């Protein structure tokens, strides 16, 4: 053996040993088992890949629905404010409660001049051209009425106003009841304010100012006493709170369980509506509120989806076309005259005919109530039954 190659023999021996170990039967069985396991793993991986490739329907996780609170109709209060009348009631009521939309507030200091918002009076009546325009308008109406034929085809015989005036001046009014029929509101306890009928019949000698918080369908904001926006909102809050407690018998502390539906005119002031919503939610304490236009509510209340709504109120007349619950903006129209202007015209006709009650004045609240009652009793639109 060559000493120069000392590892030659050792390398041959190791090679021989490895060769003999590879061809042993035990080692072969072990290798086969390992190969079988690797193949099974590969098959499982292929199956997983195939399963991943198939699009399975995505099933959303089951989430329990939140319990929805059912709204009961008797816990909904509907408020419909008007220039002269306030209507309110529960959603389940057949008819709303109706009260005069007026408040009388006690003066803070005695001796102050008494103030009262005008009812039948309006600006521009005392202008020099007002009387001439009124006479020309009455002449046009007289000509249109007397030109119409009666139902039998015969023309009417016109009667001049002078003849009626001279006849009525010869008549003396008969006193039917000597006892005073007016019962003034009792103010001995000096309440801070009075609402509705009690405010209408406050004695003028008492130290109370009378305010109508809504005029011509809008908030009655003016430069006179209690004419600021905050003062008008305070009057509305006092009137509505009193009406809710008296007519609906709902304590103010329980309004947190009630929801409110506020009806507003078709043409409205956005800032005023915002202040009203804030008053109902924050000051009065309603839990929720829905603001809707009265023309849309009137259409649905009549069982119609589309209609042309004409609303003749006490101080305004509004027109609007509603289609599928939407009030069309281009069709909205508001005219600044209504029932109180008809009452004032009726008063002019009575004066022209020599009305026996010669002391009647539009500035007197009781005279306004009397004229309103006479108009509702005797005025009509039947052209075949005409008087002066």
Automatic annotation (TrEMBL):
Protein name as catalogued: Actin-related protein 8
Compositionally biased tracts (Basic and acidic residues): 28-53
Entry-linked SUPFAM superfamilies: Actin-like ATPase domain (SSF53067)
Transmembrane spans: none
Entries under CDD domains matching the protein: ASKHA_NBD_Arp8-like (cd10206)
InterPro entries: Actin, ATPase_NBD
Region described as Disordered: 17-64
